[in-house]
Amino acid sequence: MFPYDESKYTIPAKYSYNEYPANPNGSNYNAAMLTSNDGKHLVMMPHLERSIYPHNWAYYPENRKDEVSPWVIAFNNAYDWLKNK
Q1: Do 1 and 41 share a domain, yes or no?
Q2: Alpha-carbon distance 20 to 14, whole Å?
Q3: Contact indicator for 50, 71 with CB cutoff of 8 Å
Q4: Number of independent structural domains in the chain
C-alpha cells in the first residue's frame, strides 16, 4: 500500500489495468515499477527471473516466436555492467 498520493511517486511503468491478470499483485496506481527521484534506483514487482522463457508467461503474445523472452536483455545488461566494473 502506498500511503501518499500518486503525485508523490515516480512511476515509470504501470500495469495496463487494475484487475487481475494485468495487475497481478493489486498494486496501488497500477504501479509495476518505482524509481527514486534522481532515477538511480529502480524497483519492480514483475519478476524478470520468472519470465526468461516464453512458456513462463501466462499471456505471451501468440505472434511472437522468441526462443528467449526480451526480458533476458536486462540480465545481459547487468552482467555487462558488472563485468566492466
Answers
A1: yes
A2: 13
A3: no
A4: 2
Give the CA distances from residue 7 to residues 13, 26, 32, 65, in Å, rounded to whole numbers and listed in that order: 14, 19, 15, 39
Same domain, 55 and 83: yes
pTM confidence score: 0.61
**What is the full DSSP assignment across 15-72?**
-SSSSTTTSTT--GGGEEEEE-TTS--EEESS-GGG-SSGGG-TT--TT---SS-TTH
Decide: helix, strand or coil at residue 76.
Answer: helix
| Rounded mean pLDDT, 34-63 | 86
Residue range(s) defining the domain that contains residue 85: 47-85
